[in-house]
Structure formats: structure tokens, C-alpha cells
Amino acid sequence: MTDTNGNGAPSAGAKNGANEAQGVTWRGRVRQVWRFIASPHATAALGTLVVVGFATGIVFWGSFNWSMEMTNNQEFCVTCHEMEQNVFREYRETSHYSNRTGVRATCPDCHVPKNWFHKVARKIRASAELYHHLVGSIDTREKFEAQRVRLATNVWRTMKETDSRECRNCHNFDFMDYTLQESRASRRHQEGIDDGRTCIDCHKGVAHTLPDEAYDAWTAMQAQLEADAGH
Fold first, then answer.
1. Is residue 96 a contact partner of residue 104, using CB atoms and an 8 Å limit?
2. Between 20 and 30 A from 211 (CA), which of 18, 104, 204, 217?
3. Dist. CA 71–CA 65, nearest whole Å
4. What 8-state DSSP symbol labels residue 179?
């Protein structure tokens, strides 16, 4: 029978008793958990779980980074004949491949971000390229040329949206000595700073052949980016 006051509500004594019971139950559960953790077999099991989890994490992280680096070099890029037979051959004729200073910009230098998070995002997007390799979307010269302007526009758009981030790994307005540049280059670079331009605005086609429709494609892409930005 419930202890109540005259209004039918539980009395103070009943409430205290209920609270004490809850406290006992809560403390009992804590003691049970502690006994389990403190017991030899549970401690060993928990320790084993922690060690195995830690070791598994190291192996996973190491394997992940190893695979990232294995797929982040020029040798890997040209294992696809679409690259070797087309853009790689064009690139070998440019100063990014061979120059008087001996500094070479390879495929990942220009097309893969250095920042780890951006790099992972780029690798995920590259899965679409793997799909097109498997289905043969550009496995002949004719197919590649038919898609060249679209592929080039995709790269230009990325560079435009990231302020030519990968270009700036090597080239940076802040580090340029304009007195050592040819007068035309010096003038155009300083104009670019004043106008808020980015590398790809002027340097399209420095490593790969420009599509015949490059100007129209660039103009349309610029208009689309401005529309998306609400300008």
C-alpha cells in the first residue's frame, strides 16, 4: 500500500524511500561494471581489445596512405594507355617536362592537391575516371579528341574554382621578382594581380594541346561560373 498524504499524493517518506532505492540501484550498477573491469579475465580481454584495435588502426592507416602514394606518381598515371598515348606525349614536349633548370612538374603536381583532405576528395572523384577507362570511353585517339574540350573544361573549372591551387605549389605572385622577368611577362603578371586573375586565366595549354573550341568553351564556362556565383 502506498504511503500518501491527505491529498492522495505520495508522502515525503515515500519519496525519500523511492529516491534511496534508485540510488542503491544506480550505485549497484556502477559496482557491477567496476567489478567486471577489475576482474582479471575482463582486464585481459579489454587490454587485448585495445591493443588489437590500435594495431588494426595502424595497419589500416598505413595501408591507406601507402595506396594513396602508390597512385600519386607519374608512373602510375601513364599506366593507362589513354594518358600515355595522348596527353602524356603532349606534355613531354613542354617546359614542364624538360627545361634548363631541371625542375619537372609531373602529373600529380598539377592535378592532385597537396592538402590531405583535398587529395582524398580528388582520389574519390578519380573513381569516375577508372570507370571510363574500364568501359573504353576514350580508348582511341578519335574518342579522346571528341571529348578533349569537355575534359579540358573540367580541369579549367577546377583550377578556376581553387584559384589555380596546384599551379601555386611552384608559382606564386608573392615570390616573383618582376625585374628578372621579360618586360611583357612582368607587365602581364602585375596586371593579373591588379585584376584579381588566377593562373589558368592566361596559361591554358601550357602542358597540353588546346582544343579547337577552347575560346568558346572557356567563355561559356566563365559565364556559367559567374551565373552560379550570382554575378
1. yes
2. 104
3. 10
4. G
Pick the closest to residue 162 from 128, 191, 200 (CA basis). 200
DSSP letters, 85-121, are IIIHHHHTTSTTTS-TT-----HHHHHS-SSHHHHHH
Average pLDDT over residues 95-124: 92
Please name the residues in contact with 199: beta carbons below 8 A apart, sequence gap of 6 or more. 159, 164, 167, 168, 171
CA-CA distance, 21 to 197, in Å (whole number)? Answer: 73
Measured CA distances, 24 to 13, 21, 35, 41, 104 (Å): 16, 5, 16, 27, 73
Q: Shortest CA distance to 96 belongs to which of 85, 86, 107?
A: 107
Cβ-proximal residues to 130 (8 Å cutoff; 6+ apart), any chain: none
The span from the CA of 123 to the CA of 167, in Å, is 18
**pLDDT at site 22:** 53
Q: For 132-179, what is each residue's pLDDT tens digit?
A: 888 989 989 999 999 999 999 999 999 999 999 999 989 999 999 999
Backbone angles phi, psi at 4, to 5 degrees: -125, 165
Average predicted confidence (pLDDT) for the chain: 85
Q: C-alpha grid cell for residue 123?
A: 582520389
What are the residue ranges spanned by the domains of the chain?
A: 28-70, 80-228
pTM of the model: 0.73
Q: For residue 219, is pLDDT > 80?
A: yes
| AA identity, residue 70 | M
C-alpha span between 104 and 96 (Å, rounded)? 6
The helix/strand/coil state of 10 is strand
